[in-house]
Amino acid sequence: MEDNCIFCKIARGDIPSATLYEDETLRVILDLGPASKGHALIIPKTHAANLFELPDEIVEKVFVAAKRIATQLKEGLHADGLNLVQNNGAAAGQTVDHFHIHLIPRYENDMVGITWKPGNLSEADKEDILKLFR
Ligand code: 5GP
Ligand code: ZN
């Protein structure tokens, strides 16, 4: 628990939230600034700033929960699709430095913008990256 972390306080119930699910490891809440109807956040109760700091046993639990809650949201809200979004670092759009997964139900012709302009994979980049994994 970090003293000044809003998601620690929400996850542990010190600050009330619209909770869809809770267990000993995590809490699932509605986002206060939803991208679409049903936008929810999976927040582990243990503080970790981002994916890189999250212990593997919690990684497993949050992604298993993500699948289950995503299914319930998609079916219950009759969504046409659903994005999982998980930002790490300010450069990636992270604004709250406590790991969380966004569940964003998607509806045909909604104007939610989770997109990018495709580039081209250069031979140089491809070689650089493949080298890292050899
Ligand atoms: P990030 O940009 O860090 O991936 O996402 C942070 C998310 O947390 C945003 O979608 C924002 O709307 C949501 N958020 C920030 N503060 C609160 C809060 O106090 N309560 C709830 N329910 N959501 C919050
Ligand atoms: Zn925290």
Notable features of this structure?
134 residues; alpha+beta; five-stranded antiparallel beta sheet; 3 helices; binds guanosine-5'-monophosphate; binds zinc ion
Rg, nearest Å: 17 Å
Q: Catalogue the unreliable spans.
A: none
- The rough form would be described as globular
What is the β-strand count?
5
Overall SS class: alpha+beta
Helix content: 25-40%
Question: Explain this structure to me?
Answer:
There is one protein chain. By secondary structure, the chain is of the alpha+beta class. 28% of the residues lie in helices and 19% in strands. The chain has helices at 6-11, 56-76, 123-132; strands at residues 19-22, 26-30, 40-44, 81-85, 101-106. The chain has a five-stranded antiparallel β-sheet. The longest helix has 21 residues, at 56-76. The radius of gyration is 17 Å and the shape is globular. The model has no long low-confidence stretch (mean pLDDT 97).
What's the arrangement of secondary structure elements?
Layout: H1 6-11, E1 19-22, E2 26-30, E3 40-44, H2 56-76, E4 81-85, E5 101-106, H3 123-132
Antiparallel strand pairs: 1-2, 2-3, 3-5, 4-5
The structure holds guanosine-5'-monophosphate and zinc ion.
The site of guanosine-5'-monophosphate has 13 residues, from strand 2.
